[in-house]
Description:
Elements: E1 2-3, H1 5-11, E2 15-22, E3 28-40, E4 43-51, H2 60-63, E5 66-70, E6 78-82
Parallel strand pairs: 1-4
Antiparallel strand pairs: 2-3, 3-4, 5-6
Amino acid sequence: MTLPPSLVAELGLPYAFSSSATLADDTEVAFPVHRVTVLWDGGRRRIEIDAVGSTPLVGMALLDRHNLNIDIENGGRVLIRARG
């Protein structure tokens, strides 16, 4: 999962370590990673949050064993459901 650094700071998420990624233009960027516990499907799950970008993103690991439905339009609905 990614969250904007400003939101990570506002929430006071605990820092874990620094990581890096290579962008499409071969630029390497470093960013802090935070370990948190989230409520997911009614249970607690320990995950890592990358403090990067300006838009929150849910990673594929959280979506495993779920159905994802997205209305592709500005302000469109996003529905995530656990599979049976």
